[in-house]
Give the backbone structure.
Amino acid sequence: MSLSDIQNESPDGQAFPYRELEGPDIRYVTLKPFNKGVGLVECTIWQTPLKKAEYTAISYAWGDQYVTAPILVAGQEFDVTTNLAACLKRLAIRQAAKDPAEGDSSLNIWVDAICINQDDVVERNAQVLRMKEIFPHAKELIVWLGEEGPHTGLAVERINDVTRLLDQLTENKDGDGFHDARKRLPEHIYTRTKDEHEMTVRYGVMDIYEREWWERTWILQEVGLSKDVVVHCGYYEMTWESLESFHKFAGFLMMESPELLFDIGGGQGMQMVDIEKLPLAVLNLRDDLEQSYESSLHMLIDNTRNHKATDPRDKIYGILGLSSDFRSGGIFPRYEHPVLGVYFDVLKAHFEKYDALDILDQCQFGDTGAIGLPSWTPNWALPEPDDFLPEILPKYLTNKGEEPKHAFDACGGLSLSSRPWSFGDDNTLHLTGACFDTVQSITDVADFLHGWTLESLLEAWLPTVPTPDQKYPFAPGTWLDAFRRTIVIDVRFLPTERDFAMVFPDDPDSREKESFLDRLSEARPAFYKACMLKRLAYTSKGMMGLVRPETQVGDRIAVLAGSKVLHCLREVTQASGKGKARYQLVGEAYFHGMMDGQAMAGLELEEVVLV
C-alpha cells in the first residue's frame, strides 16, 4: 500500500500527537530525504492495521535516555536519543542521495521510540506482546551499530574476506569442510601477530563486535524474528551472514587450536579475536532457534545473562516473543509491577509449567542480595555483569535428529509437585529434599581466561585425587576414571551423550602422544566448558565433583524433588524446636556417580527451606 493510499484511507491523517492504538493497528514512520536547509531529520507518522503497513524495522542501542537530540515528527519537535538521531540522519541522507528515477525517495520505518507511546504503560504492555508480529512483518531489519570508527573499513573488508574464502573452500567437495579450508587460508588471518597493520585490522574487527548494540536484551528478539538483516556501521554495510560466518570461524579455531584464541600460547602477539568479548548469544541465535527447546524462555535467559536493558523488566519481556513456551501466554508484560514482582512471576510460571526447578540455575550467589533478593531468586537486573559467568550444568542431551532428553536425573524422577512445596510469606521457598553430604575440601577456581591451561589444571587438581588406581566408591572404575569424567561433567561438548571422559596420557612423551593429541582435540572443548570458573570438590563421604566458585568448605550437598541436578546449600539458621534449618542456595553441583538417582537411596526426605 502506498503512502497516498494510507492518507486517503485515514481521515485523521497524521498519527501525532498520538491517538489510541485500536485493534490490529500499529504506527509507522515515513522518513523524508534529508534537507540541509531544515537541518533536522523530518518524518511523518501514520497509524494503520499491521497487515496493511509496509516498513523496514530499525534495531539500535538507546544509549543514555537522558541525552537527546530533536527531530521533527509531523512538524513538531520530538526528542530521541542521540544514537537514534544519528541513525535516522544517516538513513535520511542516503534517501536524499538516491536517484529520482528509482521512484519515491521516502523510507517507511518502524522504530520503537517513535512508534510506541513510551509514556503510556498500557500501550507499552500491549505492543511488547506484538513484537512477535511486528518484526517478522518487516521487509527488512536494519541494525545500527553506531557511527564508524577509524578502522571500520579495514574490519568490514576482513570480515567479508574471511566469509568469501570460507564459502569458496568449504564448497570444495573433495576437501574436508572447515578443517581442510583452514589449512589453505592465509595464516595472517588467524595466527598470533605483532604486525602493526594486522593488529590495526583486528582492533577494528573487535570494535564492531564490542559495540553497545550487541549488549542489549531486545536485539535478540529483533534479529531472531526478522527475515532479512542488514548491519550498518556509519557509512559501511555488512550482511548478518558475514558476521555469523566470521564468528563461526573463530569458534572452529577455538575447538581445534585453543592456543590461537586463549592466552595459552605464551602471549606471543595479538590473537585473531578476543573470544571472551564475542557476542556469542546473538551470533548463535538463528541456529539455536531452529531447535525449539533452545528457544525456551529458560534457555534464552541463560544465553542473555550478560545483556543489558534500560528497564530491568525487559530482561524478561525483551525475549518473551522468542520463547517457544511462554510467547503465547503464561507470562504477560506488566510494566506497572515492581521488578522483583515480575521476576517472581517468572519463577512461579516456570515451576508450574514444567513441574521442575531447572530455572534455579539462573541464581548467581552473591549477586542476589545486592538488591534484597532471596538466594533462590535470580537477579536478572544486574546492571553490568563484568565477570565471565560459569556455564550451567547441561540439562539436555541433544543428539541430532532426536528429541532432547534429560542429561541427569539426580532426584530419581520426582517431580516438583510429587512432594509438598510452597512460597513463604517471608520470601522463603519451601521444598522437599534432603541434605545428604558436606563439602570437605575444594581446589582453586579454574580460570582459563587468566592463565589456566589444561596442563596447569592437571598440575593443580590431579594430585588431590586420593588413590588414582583404586576403585571409586560411587561409580564403576577407578578414582582416575572418575576424575577424567568429572572434568567434562561426563558429557561431550555439545552435549550429545553421557559416559564421556577427558583423556590425557600417563606419559606425555610416550609413543602414543600423537594418538593422544587426536583424542584430546575432541575432549578439550568439553573440558573448557565444564571446568571454566569451577572448583573440584570432595565431600565427607568421599564423593568427587565440580561446584560453583562461591562454594565453601562446610556447604551441604542436597537433592531436591523436581531438580535433575544436585545443589550446594549454605546453612544460615540452624534447626530448633521452633522451626526447620534455613539455607541459602549456593548453586548447582555435579558429583560423579550421584547424578542419576543414586543420592535418593535410603534417604528420608523432609522440608528444605531456602532464604
Residues 152-170 form the longest helix (19 residues). The chain is about 30% helix and 15% strand. Confidence is low (pLDDT under 50) at residues 1-12.
